[in-house]
Amino acid sequence: MTTTAIDVRALTKRFDDRVAVDEVTFAVGAGEIVALLGPNGAGKTTTRRMLAGLIPPSSGGGTVAGVPLAGTPSAALRARVGLLTETPGLWDRLTVRMNLVTYARLHELPAAEARVADVLARVGLTSRADDVAAVLSKGLRQRVALARAILHAPPVLLLDEPTSGLDPAAARDVRAVVTELARQGAAVIVCTHNLTEAETLAARIGVMKTRLLAFDTPHRLGVGAGRTLEAVYLALTGEA
Questions:
Q1: Nearest 5°: phi and psi at 224?
Q2: DSSP 3-state assignment of 119?
Q3: Residue-level pLDDT at 86
Q4: What is the crossing angle of helices 96-106 and 138-150, to 10°?
Q5: Terminal alpha carbon distance of the chain
Q6: Mean pLDDT computed over 219-231
Q7: Strand 59-64's sheet: what is its strand order?
Q8: What is the DSSP letter of 3?
Q9: Is pLDDT of 240 > 70?
Q10: Is the pLDDT of residue 1 over 80?
């Protein structure tokens, strides 16, 4: 029986009079990859920030990796969640290795340098370990940020455009890493505008536009028999 890693009910976030996320309810199992789709401003980033413990919900709640979203110190969630944001946020004057070693020490990981070496190998960055972050391309910075997100072996991963800026071979390798992490039991939410990638990676797909419009397998959403995910997405969001 699959363990539920993310379970949220009526999750809502308001900023003054604006409702950014409106009563969103879904669950993600351990070892499952879910793609979260939606136009800009649909609430995907706000949802991800609540799940990561960066901001509290206005109402509703649930659990992430067994940790309650409401009334829990954010550090407890950060220890259980790996977060990849759209902007990598690296220390430019530090090498790739020292960027990751610093985070490993913040997480109080044993054998920090060995763990960093392992993660660098997984994302194909061993040869760039001694480069300072400032000289890296956008794609390489994205891979360092992915390495940072998985450094502490979190049971939940929240990934925003994980292959943004990567060439096709590097993107394929990142997808392989994400798939392997799920195979090992991590629950993964991928926020992306790349519909092909969503369909390739995800067992289920959620479509948001402030509310959760749909959440199911591509087949049950209506993909197939000549109907593409793009057509389904545009119909659901009213952008067709």
A1: 125, 170
A2: helix
A3: 78
A4: 30
A5: 39
A6: 93
A7: 18-29, 4-15, 59-64, 67-68
A8: P
A9: no
A10: no
